[in-house]
Design brief:
Helix content is 52%, strand content 18%. The protein contains 13 helices and ten strands. By secondary structure, it is an alpha+beta fold. A six-stranded mixed β-barrel has the order 2-3-8-5-7-6. A hairpin with a 2-residue loop joins β2 and β3.
Length: 404
């Protein structure tokens, strides 16, 4: 085994009798390196985008969200919520009233979701950190009600933050079927926009935050709430706390973590990442045809050496091992080179923002986000070595037939 590896290593760096063999070998190494580098960069880009979206959503979604299994609302007397609030790992909680409504601003209309929360919800959720520059997180000032709206809602309604024109909220009354007058069939309220937030497009396009007492009055939900949001202490195990809460509340309530609150979105992000991984792996398979051709050319070039080794007593197994190691070394060299280049590119993007996002700088990011993860490096290295193994095995298999 050591002899086969030693001879293969000498073949890798020694000059070949035909210059074209050297060129093909170099192309093989470069092809594997470029494919490996592309895998590292693309996977890191997906990681960066995923982390950015998760961080943005963490400003809107709680660590845990409790809703009723059947129906739309519940009261705190329906279960032992005092035990939930005092549970180890639960730092804060927020009562939420949420329902669909029609929004109007001047002569424009839009369907949206009104979310009633406490005035300190900005610090509870972290939304106060994603308020755009020309606004502030204010829901109540004396008796005056204010609203914080998604940037998409603001854009579609062309809302200004000058407090001149209010946003009107229209909600059907629960007994609207018994009323003949349409004006009497709606609950109405108005709020002045105080600021807008930008989290994620789907959220930005529909949510408007208002004081919870106003939401309860609009939706006729006095003393009731749509959900109870929980913020956990730093270091608390989400799954453990979630299980304990579910045991306390029973099956009539549903407890969801951040992943479950946007399960479809997270699944799409993960599937996109690994779909790209598979596509680039297939490209690496195509690039490995260079390795196959290179190894075939080396076998032809070293035909005289094979005869000499046979005359010195080398058996077929040793000769097959030599060229199998040769193919693995070419693949390994390309993989290591590609990993190093990919890691350097990801590091450079993180430090120097080589690839910037277009725009005037108003977006939350100035450059494309990237994040290097060990599992991606390991998976890339393994897939490249596997592809290199099969690319080297094929010509060596043919060689064994010739030698047999």
């Amino acid at each position: 085994m050591k002899l086969a590896f030693y001879i293969a290593r000498r073949y890798l760096v020694s000059p070949k009798s035909a210059n074209i063999v050297n060129i093909i070998s170099a192309i093989s190494v470069v092809g594997v390196a470029i494919g490996t580098m592309a895998l590292i960069v693309v996977l890191s880009a997906f990681n960066g985008i995923d982390s950015f979206i998760e961080n943005m959503l963490s400003s809107f979604d709680p660590d845990l969200k409790i809703t009723v299994a059947e129906g739309k609302s519940f009261t705190l007397e329906d279960a032992d919520f005092d035990a939930v609030k005092q549970l180890e790992g639960v730092a804060r909680y927020a009562e939420v009233v949420e329902e669909n409504a029609m929004l109007s601003y001047e002569d424009r209309l839009k369907y949206g979701v009104v979310k009633g929360v406490a005035p300190d919800y900005g610090s509870f959720s972290g939304l106060d950190s994603v308020i755009l520059d020309d606004g502030q997180f204010v829901l109540k000032n004396g008796s005056q009600n204010f609203a914080v709206i998604g940037e998409g809602v603001r854009y579609e309604l062309s809302v200004g933050l000058s407090f001149v024109s209010p946003i009107y909220i229209h909600v059907p009354r629960k007994d609207f079927k018994t009323r003949l007058n349409m004006d009497q069939s709606l609950n109405r309220a108005h709020v002045f926009p105080a600021g807008s937030f930008s989290v994620e497009q789907e959220i930005d396009n529909k949510y408007i935050l208002v004081p919870i007492d106003l939401a309860r009055s609009l939706f006729e939900m006095e003393g009731r709430l749509s959900s109870l949001e929980l913020k956990l202490t730093d270091g608390a195990d989400v799954e453990t706390v979630k299980t304990k809460i579910q045991q306390i509340l029973g099956p009539q309530f549903v407890v969801k973590d951040r992943y479950e609150q946007h399960e479809f979105l997270y699944r799409v992000m993960k599937s996109e990442k690994w779909s790209s991984f598979l596509i680039l792996s297939f490209i690496l398979v195509i690039a490995s045809f260079n390795l196959l051709g290179s190894l075939t050319m080396i076998i032809i070039d070293k035909k005289d050496d094979i005869k000499i080794l046979e005359s010195m007593g080398a058996n077929n197994k040793l000769i097959r091992q030599i060229f199998l190691f040769e193919g693995w070394l070419v693949s390994f060299s390309g993989a290591i080179g590609g990993l190093i280049l990919g890691i350097i590119l990801v590091w450079a993007q993180t430090q120097f923002e080589l690839l910037k996002l277009p725009g005037d700088g108003s977006f939350a990011l100035s450059a494309y986000p990237v994040e290097l993860q060990l599992i991606d490096v390991s998976a890339t290295f393994l897939i490249v070595l596997c592809i290199g193994f099969f690319a080297a095995w094929y010509p060596v298999r043919n060689l064994s037939k010739d030698l047999g």
